[in-house]
Amino acid sequence: MLLTLAWRNLWRKKRRTLITASSVMFAVVLAVILMSMINGMRQQMIDSIISNTTGHVQIQDVLYHDEPSMDHAMEYSQEVKDAVEARGDAIKYTVPRIEGFCLASKEVSSRGVYLTGIVPEKEDRMNDLSSRLVEGAMFEPGEEFAVIGRGVATLLDLALGDTIVLLGQGFQGMTAAGKFPVGGILEFPLPEANNTMVYLPLNVAQDFFAAPGRLNSLILMLEDPGQADEVARLLLQDLDQEWYTTKTWEELMPDKVAAFEARDAQVRIFAWVLYIVAGFGIFGTVITMMHERLRELGILLSIGLKRSRLAMVTMLETLFIGFIGVLAGIAVGYPIVYWFYRNPIPLGTEAGEVMIDFGIEPYLTFSIAPGIFIYQGITIFIIALIVGIYPVRKVFALDMIDAARK
After folding, report:
1. N or C: which end of the chain has fewer CB within 10 A?
2. Measuring CA to CA, how many Å separate 301 from each of 178, 246, 294, 306, 388?
């Protein structure tokens, strides 16, 4: 009976109910948009790090992380292959790499570059590298040409068919030197990558560094990114820990993780400021609603309705309004964030430069993770419930004679 009475009371004054529910709805919409943007940016940063650099987990030589030199390139042994195969249910695919700094030159021009030996089809699966080709082609098995960044080509005045000379340090102090024709040019959104990246087939790069059968790291891409710590732990148990170690992306990028944590703390403070503002907005609407209903409440009490039952009715009304407002907020907020999820916002010059400095493409992205809508909806609903304490207290403190005369 109380549920029915509360529901009917809401729609006796549709305008009042809609105004109150709208205050809840707008609070939910603002919270959803804010958190969608923040979570989208955070996930963009993480995805950029994972897909372009570290992967979810890496297998390395035990000394490589502390002293990243070619001398600590690990042997890609059968032991490593067996350990990876044993965790095949959790590992989606692997990406082998050998990489190091070299001096690249053409005639009298020279520049420091970062040479990476890759398996193209695996790199494409990880970061869609071939889609960045603007000239030429990516090498196929058996081919031995270099694919370079557009900035490298511009700075060294290289074109397709020209020869790039590479000089560096190989495994155990060996001199690494070689000449390779340029067969492809890539364009990256990040200037640093454009100006430094040079790619060779994995086996060619291994021979160049005098490190056949060795890798700087074996990158593992997982079925479930949330299992990175567990997969790294299990792999380590299967490997000889005197020679090999495993690292998650968080261990490989501690500075980025610390930056994320600091940023998340700032975001939580800002979000709670938004919640408090939204709470006061809802509270102001409820105060106005109660003031308009004083005569009605006084009459109900004077004809014998118990205060406890009337208080329950007002609380149920608040629950209904909160529930309606939350559902409406999610219904309105979802299409907005979905649009921005499908159409990221390009950032201006200054903000874009900041993103580029972090190694991230300069776009403002949004997230449509279900947890965003659930968490914001529950939070605003709880705030509405807390505000609902006011009508209950008002009912118990109400003087029915004075209220009935208003």
Report:
1. N
2. 94, 71, 11, 7, 19
* pLDDT tens track for 158-204: 999 999 999 998 888 888 899 999 999 998 877 888 899 999 999 99
**Cβ-proximal residues to 168 (8 Å cutoff; 6+ apart), any chain:** 100, 101, 102, 103, 115, 176, 177, 208, 209
Q: Residues 80, 85, 88, CA angle at the centre, nearest 5°?
A: 135
User: Burial of 401 by CB count in 10 Å (0-12 exposed, 13-18 middle, 19+ buried)?
Assistant: exposed
Domains of the chain by residue range:
2-50+256-405, 63-240
d(Cα 6, Cα 12) in Å, to the nearest integer?
10
- For the record, the structure tokens of 328 come out as 């409406």
The rounded distance, in Å, linking the Cα atoms of 48 and 52 is: 6
Nearest of 96, 63, 83, 57 to residue 214 by alpha carbon:
96
Task: With a cut of 60, say whether residue 46 has pLDDT above it.
Answer: yes
Strand partners, 97: 217
Specify which residues 135 forms β-bridges with: 185
Strands 175-186 and 363-364: unpaired
| pLDDT per position as a tens digit, 216-265 | 999 999 988 888 889 999 999 988 888 999 999 888 888 877 777 777 77
| 14, HSE (Cβ side, Cα atoms, 13 Å) | 0
β-strand partners of 175: 169
| Model confidence pLDDT, tens digit, residues 100-125 | 999 999 887 888 999 999 999 999 98
Alpha-carbon span 227 to 212, nearest angstrom: 32
HEC string of 258-269? HHHHHHHHHHHH
The residue type found at 139 is: F
Band of pLDDT at residue 380, cut at 50, 70 and 90: confident
Angle, vertex CA 162, rays to CA 156 and CA 168, nearest 5 = 60
User: Is the Cβ–Cβ distance between 149 and 111 less than 8 Å?
Assistant: no
The span from the CA of 154 to the CA of 195, in Å, is: 9
Which pair of tokens denotes residue 18? 């809609």
Neighbours of 4 (CB within 10 A): 9
Q: How, if at all, do strands 175-186 and 146-149 pair?
A: parallel
Apex CA 236: angle with CA 52 and CA 217, to 5°? 30
Run of H or E residues at 178: strand 175-186
